[in-house]
Every structure is written in C-alpha cells, then in structure tokens.
C-alpha cells in the first residue's frame, strides 16, 4: 500500500481572551459610540463579506487579484528561494493560490486566522492542491502575540492582502507594522495590499452597493449582539451609512439610529438619540508615497510596488 505523506499541520497560536461584553459596552457608552470592526466577522458576517467581494461596485478584491495574476512571477522572484510564506488573516486563502502557483521553490506556507474551523478547512484543501508544500494552519489573532510553528526555511515572507492595513487607526497601524518588522529578520519581506486614494464617487459606491449586501453586513453586527450578548436591538430602527471622509482620507462605516430609543445589552441600558451613530469601521486610503513613508518609519524599505492600470490599488514588497 502506498504511504501518503502528511503535509498539513494544525497549531493553536493563541487563546483569544477578549471580554466581548465589556469591550462592546465600553464602546457604546462613549460620547461618540464605536465598535471594533473585528466584531463584524462572525460566521454570517464572514459569509456576507465574501458576497461583498463579488459585487461589481467593490473593486478592491478583483483589482488586487488582477495585480497578483499579472505580476505573480515578479513577486515570486522578489520573495526568492528557500522561503516560507506567512499569511495574516488567511480567510478562504483564495488570493494566496496565485502566489503558491508561481513560487515554485516555496517550502512552507503558514495560514494564520482567528476563525479556526474555516482556517482548518482551507488549509486541508491547500495541502491537497500543493502536495510539495508544508502547510501550517495557525489558529490565532495575528494582532496579538502568538506562537509560530518551527519553520525550516531560510527566509520568511509575510503576505497581508486585502488592504486590511487600512482598517487600523494610524497609531495601531504603526504599532502593527513595527511588530511585524520585529517578527521578521533582516532580509525577510512583506507583501502587502494597500488601497489608494481615488475619486470619492468610486469609494462611496464600493461601500454602498445596489444590492445592499454591505448594509446587511453592517447590520449583522446588531444581530450578533442580540444573539451573543443578550441585547435587544431592532434592526429596522437602524440604517447603514458609509461615506468617504476626504479630510481624514478614509471611508467610514456607521449604523445610524432612526429614532430616539433605549437598548438593553446584558444588564445595561444604552440610550440613542435619533441620528446618533455607532462607528463600526474605517478604511484608510493612501498615496503610494504616504504608505512608503509609514513603512520606512516602521523598519521596512520599499523594494517594489505594483499597481493596476487605473492606479486604484497597490501591492508593496517591503524588506526589513
């Protein structure tokens, strides 16, 4: 009988100990109510976001995939041989397939994601598709300290697509990039997707699609609070609102209270005035120079930049 070599490995990177109730309650008690965008991504939220990426108005995913497909061999050359590719927030691992196909000398792929079941399923599929690559699935919140599996490759390359970097506030972004540069060593690299500044009409359409999938995605946050925190939000009393704030260089996403109302969450009462909002997410946009300047301050040197023809999106290869 032929022996099948096992090339997928599962690891627990960290145990998330976030007190969701306290964190959400503190956010709703602030004078300007806000919630961390990480709470948008429960199972239903993740499914809705996958739908969003397919929408005609939502350009980032298809544009980044276009860049990856067009320049994958240049990216593979930049990463070099005897490397391990480490993806932060791997999700369905769709984008990384393009790189894995081009990086012929890649030894190891490490997928890191907070959603354990989804992660393990994706890692198993990848291990079958790429039998010559050692696939490690690490269940962890990559923004916190986590345990990495022991790797045998000479160099590490972090892959961070999707312009997720734009969801961080400026100080959080700097801290995250500095921590990543310290996680790597001299000569290691980071391939990162960065959304670029563009016409406000394009940005506003991307976050206010005609099918209202983004609205469902945003409002699903209240469903989650009702289910997990014993809240009593009525979704029909809130509406989705997203817009490009040019002065701050970001798209803001909010939930707007349509009336004066009082919400119960656990044992607490939260009052909303008509028109008051919960700020649920930011998505910062950059010029290429703005992002390169930020990366330089965090211990990176910009080696390559690839863009689409419209210069709507960019992928940067940074070196420690």
Pick out its properties.
320 residues; alpha/beta; Rossmann fold; 8-stranded mixed sheet; 3-stranded antiparallel sheet; 9 helices; EgtD; SAM-dependent_MTases_sf; methyltransferase
Write the layout of secondary structure elements.
Blueprint: E1 8-12, H1 20-29, H2 43-52, H3 59-79, E2 83-88, H4 94-102, E3 108-113, H5 116-129, E4 134-139, E5 155-160, H6 170-183, E6 189-195, H7 200-206, H8 213-228, E7 238-245, E8 250-257, E9 261-265, E10 268-272, E11 277-284, H9 288-297, E12 301-307, E13 313-319
Parallel strand pairs: 1-4, 2-3, 2-5, 3-4, 5-6
Antiparallel strand pairs: 6-13, 7-8, 8-11, 9-10, 12-13
- How would you state the average pLDDT, rounded? 91
Structure annotation, total helices:
9
Evaluate the radius of gyration: 20 Å
Number of domains: 2
InterPro entries: EgtD (IPR035094), EgtD_Methyltrsf_superfamily (IPR051128), MeTrfase_dom (IPR019257), MeTrfase_EgtD-like (IPR017804), SAM-dependent_MTases_sf (IPR029063)
Pfam families: Methyltransf_33
Keywords: Methyltransferase, Transferase
Protein name: Dimethylhistidine N-methyltransferase
Describe, in plain words, how this protein is organized in 3D.
Keywords: Methyltransferase, Transferase. It contains nine helices and 13 strands. It has about 325 residues and is of the alpha/beta class. The protein has two domains: about 35-55 and about 200-285, no CATH class; about 60-200 and about 285-320, Rossmann fold. The chain has an eight-stranded mixed sheet with strand order 1-4-3-2-5-6-13-12, sandwiched between helices. Strands 7-8-11 form a three-stranded antiparallel sheet. Strands 9-10 form a two-stranded antiparallel ribbon. Strand 9 and strand 10 form a beta hairpin. The relative contact order is 0.17.
């Amino acid at each position: 009988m032929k022996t099948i070599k096992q090339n997928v490995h599962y690891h627990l990177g960290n145990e998330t100990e976030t007190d969701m109730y306290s964190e959400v309650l503190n956010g709703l008690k602030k004078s300007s109510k806000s919630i961390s965008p990480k709470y948008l991504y429960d199972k239903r939220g993740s499914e809705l976001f996958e739908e969003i990426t397919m929408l005609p108005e939502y350009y980032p995913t298809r544009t980044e995939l276009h860049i990856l497909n067009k320049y994958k061999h240049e990216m593979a050359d930049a990463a070099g041989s005897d490397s391990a590719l480490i993806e932060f927030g791997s999700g369905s691992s769709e984008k990384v397939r393009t790189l894995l196909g081009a990086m012929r000398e890649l030894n190891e792929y490490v997928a890191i994601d907070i959603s354990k079941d989804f992660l393990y399923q994706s890692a198993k599929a990848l291990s079958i598709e790429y039998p010559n690559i050692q696939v490690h699935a690490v269940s962890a919140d990559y923004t916190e300290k986590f345990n990495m599996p022991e790797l045998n490759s000479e160099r590490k390359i972090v892959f961070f697509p999707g312009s997720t970097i734009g969801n961080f506030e400026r100080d959080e972004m700097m801290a995250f990039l500095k921590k990543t540069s310290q996680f790597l060593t001299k000569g290691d690299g980071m391939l990162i997707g960065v959304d670029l500044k563009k016409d406000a009409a394009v940005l506003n359409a991307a976050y206010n699609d005609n099918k209202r999938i983004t609205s469902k995605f945003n409002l699903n946050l209240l469903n989650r609070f009702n289910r997990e925190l014993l809240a009593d939000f009525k979704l029909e009393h809130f509406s989705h609102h997203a817009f490009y704030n040019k002065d701050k260089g970001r798209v803001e996403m909010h939930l707007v209270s349509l009336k004066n109302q009082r919400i119960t969450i656990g044992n607490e009462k939260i009052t909303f005035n008509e028109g008051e909002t919960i700020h649920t997410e930011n998505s910062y946009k950059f010029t290429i120079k703005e992002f390169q300047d930020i990366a330089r301050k965090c211990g990176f040197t910009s080696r390559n930049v690839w863009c689409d023809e419209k210069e709507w999106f960019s992928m940067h290869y940074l070196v420690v």
